[in-house]
């Protein structure tokens, strides 16, 4: 160890925020382990790192005991022998002798380097974790690094994120080097460093894309109240304006549909239904079944369920292909929705009357 090494520790503290005292304590513990490993010492020893000069010294420690209590001369020393060293010693005091091996400097330098490298790695992992944990539920642009067993690895700069098959848009194909926008779903700490899970199928991706495209959403004038999505196929989004002069649907669609078109293009032609939110459950449920027309909505507040009656010719549209429209409407409103045609509703009503 030398003066240059101490200056290097000062630089680490300054540039990377690694506390020098904590680093030196860690080095001392590592050197203690290295000493015992390399020199097979069973003694109680202490390693001292001179913080001003960078010198390393090893001291053996013995406890001053009464003659009748002496058990191990490596660990203990009789009071009378201790007082031959210094008359001031008392029972229970610790006597130290320097036992630094001649070639311990080489081992110390190697050990200290390993500790510093490990600590730098840990500090960098912590910085990356703190940086990305603040970006949870946000969109970032990454580059596809590779695809391995249906898992897409996305390079986000200082770290690679993973996108599992469940978080991919069905039917979307990815190629190495491709730039893609991803939603940061989760940031976890692991023994190997931060692990970041990203998504392109999460409803949050659609919401964030609209925030980027629609200034009124970014500014909070138009609020996204809820989003339901079946990635790659269709999304429903409920919006509300806090300014009566602003049409929330028009703001999201944009001039000649430009804003929503940009998002549809990003998502690979996924259909997007933008619906006006209402605090009235019946109105909201009716709007959520767009593009189908609705005749009546009968709500049950206690069960949070609704019976919706639609024109006969609109029944298949209201339910949607494989039930998708009804399913997305139920997710969007968080209500259980039962859809019937007018003729079905009238028939059931007549049966009850009879």
In short:
The protein has 354 residues and is an alpha+beta fold.
Q: Layout of helices and strands, plus pairs?
A:
Layout (H helix, E strand, L loop, with lengths): L2 H14 L3 H20 L4 E6 L6 E10 L10 E3 H7 L8 E5 L5 H30 L5 E10 L2 E5 L4 E4 L15 E12 L2 E7 L3 H11 L1 H4 L3 E9 L3 E8 L6 H6 L4 H9 L4 E6 L4 H8 L7 E5 L4 E6 L4 H5 L4 H10 L2 E6 H12 L1
Parallel strand pairs: 2-3, 11-12, 14-15
Antiparallel strand pairs: 1-2, 2-4, 5-6, 5-8, 6-7, 8-9, 10-11, 13-14
Provide key terms for this protein.
354 residues, alpha+beta, N Utilization Substance Protein A, Chain:P, domain 4, OB fold (Dihydrolipoamide Acetyltransferase, E2P), GMP Synthetase, Chain A, domain 3, 4 domains, 12 helices, 15 strands, elongated
- From the alpha carbons, calculate the radius of gyration and give it in angstroms: 35 Å
Mean pLDDT: 88
What is the correct CATH architecture of the largest domain?
A: 2-Layer Sandwich
Tell me the total number of β-strands: 15
CATH superfamily heading of the largest domain: NusA, N-terminal domain
What is the H/E string? HHEEEHEHEEEEEHHEEHHEHEEHHEH
Walk across the major sheet and give the strand order.
Answer: 7-6-5-8-9
- Percentage of β-strand residues: 25-35%
| Number of DSSP helical runs | 12
Helix proportion: 25-40%
Tally of separate domains? 4
The name CATH uses for the topology of the largest domain is N Utilization Substance Protein A, Chain:P, domain 4
The stretches of 5 or more residues where confidence is low (pLDDT under 50) are none
Beginning-to-end CA distance, first to last residue: 99 Å
CATH class of the largest domain: Alpha Beta
Give a short account of the largest sheet: 5 strands, antiparallel
The best one-word shape is elongated
